[in-house]
Amino acid sequence: MKKDLRSLIEKLNMSLTRQNGEWAVAVASRPSNQEIAIIKSRKQELIAELKEMQKERFAKENEEKENQKIVVEYQEGEILQGYKVKQNKEKAEELGIAKMVSNWGYLVKKEIIEALGTEFTVNEARAYLESLKTKKEVTKEEKLRSLIETAKVLGHRVEIESYPVACDGSVEECDTDIITKYVDASGNITISRMHTH
User: Fold this and answer.
1) DSSP string computed for 90-135
2) What is the side-by-side strand order in the sheet with 176-183?
3) What is the dihedral of CA 90, 95, 96, 100, to 10 degrees?
4) Separation between Cα atoms, residue 68 and residue 53, nearest integer Å
5) pTM of full prediction above 0.90
6) Least packed by Cβ within 10 Å: which of 25, 69, 139, 193?
């Protein structure tokens, strides 16, 4: 039954469209009277099948994009030297593994080459970047656990990090505030704001 619908869809080159805000079936080829009757009687099934086919097509396109190769080559210039993307430049930049350098091309970070080599798929690059992110998160968690232990030993809260931000406007003649995050022996995190007049 489903196979019959797909055959009819392909034969008549059907596609999804909108009509008065509702999904409808567009037919590119001229249908016979019998096919018109099938289209009218099975309209909702055809719409559902067209949506399913569209999902399958998008999934296949995504899979193909993920399996595309990124090819990198070493290049020496007068001023700059490094690994330059030779194939699939835009995808490399989108992933964040390459940066556009004016009048040179897309420069790839050395650690990417060390980890993946000079030819790898988009999927492999994405997996590597995800593993880096996971390692970074684990390192942050380990640092926090260590600071909690330090707070227990010292008997007071300890600083996690400190950084400048634009003033929140609660004090006149202040442009920059210093945000400091602390953790106590129980693992509670507090944040303080100091104005720099």
Assistant:
1) HHHHHHTSEEEETTTEEEEPHHHHHHH-SEEEHHHHHHHHHHHHHH
2) 158-166, 176-183, 189-196
3) 0
4) 23
5) no
6) 139
